[in-house]
Amino acid sequence: MLTLAQLNQHLDDEHTLGTTSGNSDESANGNENEDENENKRLTIGIEKDFKNWFKENFIGPQQQQQPSSPRKFKADIFDSNFSLSESSRSSSPDGLQKKSSSSSSRHPIKNGVVPVIIPRAHWQKPSGNSYCHYEGCNKNLGLKNGQVNCRKCGRLFCDYHTLYRMKINAKLESDVENGVWSRVCVDCFQQRPCWERANDGQFRDLTVVFKRLRDKKVGTINLGRLNLEKRLIKFLNYLELVGEGKKSLSEFYAFERDLVPWQDAAKYRKCSVCQSPFSFFVRKHHCRICGSVVCGDPSKGCSMPVPANLIAGILNIRLPGEEKDSQVGSFEGPTGNITIRLCLLCKRRIFDRRLASEESVKLDSSDFIITFKRFLALRTQVEKARGVADELKLIGYFTKIEQLLKVLSAKVKVLDNQAEEQASTRVNAQTGQNIQLPNKPFNVDQYRLYRSLEQRIVSYIQENLPELRRIQQSKIAEEKKLIGEKEEQQDGAPKLTKREIRLKREKLMVLNEQKFMIQNLHEEYKKQRKFDDLQPLDDNLSDLRKEIEGLRLELGDEAF
Amino acid sequence: MVTTQSELLKHDIYLIDKIENFDRDNLRNLPCICFFKPSDLILSDLCSEISSPKYKSYQVYFNNIVSKSRLERLAESDDLEVITNVAEVFQDYYTVNRALFTSVNISNPLGGIDTWDPESLDTALDSIISLLLSLKIKPVIRFESNSKMASKLASSVNYEIDNNSSKLFDDATKKDVQPLLLIMDRKNDPVTPLLFPWTYQSMIHEVFGIKNNTVDLSQLPNVGKELKTVVLNESQDQFYRESMYLNFGELSESLKKFIDKYREKTKTNSSINSIKDMKYFLENYPEFKKTSLNVSKHMLLSSEIDKRINEWRMWEVSEFQQTMVSNSDTSHHQSELDQLEQLLFDHKDNGQGVPLAPLSNETKTKLLSLYALKYETYSGKQTTKLLRLLKKSHFPEEYCHFVQTLLKYAGASERLFDDDDSIFERVANSSSTLINGLTFGSHGDTSNVYMQHVPRLQSILMKVAKCKLNLNHYPYIGKPQPEITGSGSKVPPQEIIIYIVGGVTYEEARLVAELNKSNSGLRCVIGGTHILSTDGFVENLVDIGDSSR
């Protein structure tokens, strides 16, 4: 009997492509049941035969060889395999020549650019039963689904998966500028660079521009700062002389005035920093290193007498006379209490940067940073251990992380209490009660930092919990097997070998840990009032306890 | 668009604060990452921040173009050299869904009828520019010619592209076809934002209001602490991703499946008797917790929506709304008027003589405005009579006024007439669903009375795909070279950005999302000044009505 597939095949061979007599001869030879199926074939094929006839008469004989369905595409703007540029396929150079001249009338020529001709040599030749190359489509190609070559990759596709167009050039590359619109398949369409790369999202780094701008500005600032610093050093040097008794204090005061031209105090009626007018109570002062007139209000800090030894300490200057004492800033005698009046601006300009960097170094060793760094280090170690599947180490690291967490939570709890206290005092202060604020200012951001770090570690452990449990389980299973083997070997031997003791201890530890976990869960549930879930937890807890007890008994004195 | 703190924690960001908060403590040991809109206010805050830095170093990211003068200002104040990085990442807009964006913080772009609120214009411009830059697109711009707002925005965008930031737009990816930026005006389709929507995301917005991807549920009674505010994020919530565009019927089915799946998972843990069950439970505990929270979130949302729908009698109201707007035929005037009167004056009963609970004033307003819009040019219209009657029954003045404002804003004479397609007509069924290689989704679901109406956007997009958008109604800015194939036909754009001045609706976003899903040859993004609910739309117009009075 002839199967339906065979019949289909036959129909395809016979009728799909421009039917020639040779073709039908071949199929007649090949198929013995020809006559029996003639009738069926006629009814099914009649429409197709009509189309073939139509094609022969209207499309022209030179396209007869073209392997394509004559079906008219719904989307008329897509050229089918029968576009009129067909003749370019004829291999003779004459044909090519003719083609370009004929196509020039269709393609609008801009600036004398010769229209690109897309080669067709790479086209896949259709066999009788080709299928659509789009992944997951697998439709049989033919009259029903269409049969179109992707102009770019040349593979065959069904109509639906070639409803795409892009510009390509003669080298079959995507060419936005000079390409010709061509019918392509989904894959080629989506892989073209202007489509694929569009998802990057734009990002412009302005750091270089910014730094150039800043350098310009900061250069002058730095110059000014150096200048000020130089003056300060001169001061200190002179002080040194005073300290050694070579110069008198009055000489020093004269030097002060000489170093910087002081602004004329009479001209200024307002402090150049805070702009408050001078009066009997708001006195005029001169900044010793820039010479400007400022007020000396200690609460505003527009200018302040700064002890000379402090300045030397911050600038980290070692004066020649100082080496005797070998201690920075320990001025004795008349210079010990000498101060240099600096205005706020100078102070900022000279010291801010130094102080900031110093502070950051100092704070780098703060509790938070240390905890964070340890967490980070443990995390990288976990990744490493996971990479080589070193399970014991993994567990070890996790216990370390848990320890870290415990310490941290203790700290957070302390801070929690502090925060509450703070809140209550604030409330009290609002209600008018006069309560002393805590001596140590409470650092809110610090508190938030600790809390979020705690959260982070908890969530990290939670994330990794399933894996961890799995590892522990497999370990336990392994151990159990080992123990079983051992027991088989020395049946009835009451004394435990060292190895068994070790294994049991480990097991005990694991069980204890689980107990701890469940207890925590228990607490949590209690808090959330999920009493329904409490019951099974309780059961398990008792189970665990029993098992732990059993193990303890077995181990006896060797338990720890 | 909104990320959660736990998400940031995963990247080891432990402290989040605003620059406006001046009480931040000194933490000189920590580096700081800043993300800002480059506005003058923020810049001055930033300048004072870095001149007395609280943190070790600063990496500054701006979400839009930073002008040279602003950069200079910043450089001047950074004499301590604490800034290590400055960059622009173009994100001056909210990404609500995969294909939906809005401008930032616009509540009402209308300064009057067809005029911009000046601040909103700037914000809208900023958001479009940064969107184009982030997509690396230099588009052709078209706009709706009857709208001054759209044309103003379109020319501003064009100016910005050509002048201020020419360097940036030179980097735009070269495309086969230039992408299209289509700027539309809400007034050309006032119907869509007046109808009660029936798909999940739209309904959530309609009932609760989605703000920055979060929904505030704290007003509801008996809500657990964890569900006071819920986050709805397409990328993190699988169930939401799958069902955000489903209609209410489909939604309840999918929710049921979701819950069954969850039950199956948790069934084993409901009877933890052995250590083995226990271990299984512990292993999956975080996962369980997450899922259970998600289940209860969606349960809460959908049950609350259901409650509201019944409370508002939306089943019958919406059916009437939908049938009224899905044909332009005026021959049903009398029957529709009767039905409208019944609803407006609460004449309906439940069949046993007991009157139904009265409709809210808002619902009535929306019904009346739909009627007024549909029969605006019909000679036998009863709009004024209805308004008079309503006024007598102590109907709020502002809502009566709203109907008139609406007609002034989006009446027949104000709307574009796209080749005789009325907004009340269903998209012609005869046309093929396959246009130029693009598949268009449903043309209004005739089997579902609640989903009959299809936003006007659909027909506009179909015309874009056919390259048949009217050149007079949708003029280009400049004169782009149309792409023409060898056989002489025009090539439609393959990437489209739609911006609706006056607000976009989630229904339109759904339309675009479905279009994208069924077409791999098209990328379409829709956005608007803000996202409208029916109430939001009414409020916006009431606002300008007040100011114009």
What can you see in these coordinates?
The complex is a heterodimer of chains A (560) and B (549). Chain A has helices at 4-16, 21-30, 34-58, 93-106, 186-191, 193-196, 207-243, 249-259, 308-315, 344-363, 367-387, 391-431, 444-489, 498-528, 531-555, and strands at 148-149, 156-157, 164-168, 180-184, 203-205, 284-286, 293-295, 303-307, 339-343. Chain A has 560 residues and is mostly helical. Chain A has 15 helices and 9 strands. In chain A, helix 1 runs parallel beside helix 3 and helix 13 (444-489) packs across helix 14. Chain A has a two-stranded antiparallel sheet. Among the domains of chain A are: 4-63, no CATH class; 115-197, Herpes Virus-1 (2-Layer Sandwich), CATH 3.30.40; 208-363, 2-Layer Sandwich (Herpes Virus-1); 497-560. In chain A, strand 6 and strand 7 form a beta hairpin. Chain A is flat, with a radius of gyration of 45 Å. Chain B has 549 residues and is α/β, with parallel strands linked by helices. Chain B has 4 domains: 5-88, Rossmann fold, CATH 3.40.50; 91-190 and 415-549, Sec1/Munc18 (SM) protein, domain 2 (Rossmann fold), CATH 3.40.50; 200-311, Sec1/Munc18 (SM) protein, domain 3a (Syntaxin Binding Protein 1, Chain A, domain 2); 314-410. In chain B, 44% of the residues lie in helices and 14% in strands. Chain B contains 18 helices and 18 strands. Chain B has helices at 5-10, 40-51, 68-77, 118-134, 148-162, 166-170, 200-207, 238-243, 248-270, 275-311, 314-325, 333-344, 361-374, 383-392, 397-410, 457-466, 506-518, 534-548, and strands spanning 27-36, 55-62, 83-89, 94-97, 100-102, 110-112, 115-116, 140-143, 180-185, 210-211, 214-216, 229-231, 434-435, 438-439, 495-501, 504-505, 523-528, 531-532. In chain B, strands 4-5-17-15-9-8 form a 6-stranded mixed sheet, with helices on both faces. In chain B, strand 6 (110-112) and strand 7 form a beta hairpin. In chain B, helix 2 runs parallel beside helix 3 (68-77). Chain B is globular and about 75 Å long. The relative contact order of chain B is 0.13. Residues 428-432 of chain B have low confidence and may be disordered. The interface between A and B is large, with 90 and 81 residues. Chain A: Residues 265-351 form the FYVE-type domain. Chain A: This is FYVE-type domain-containing protein. Chain A: Keywords: Metal-binding, Zinc, Zinc-finger.
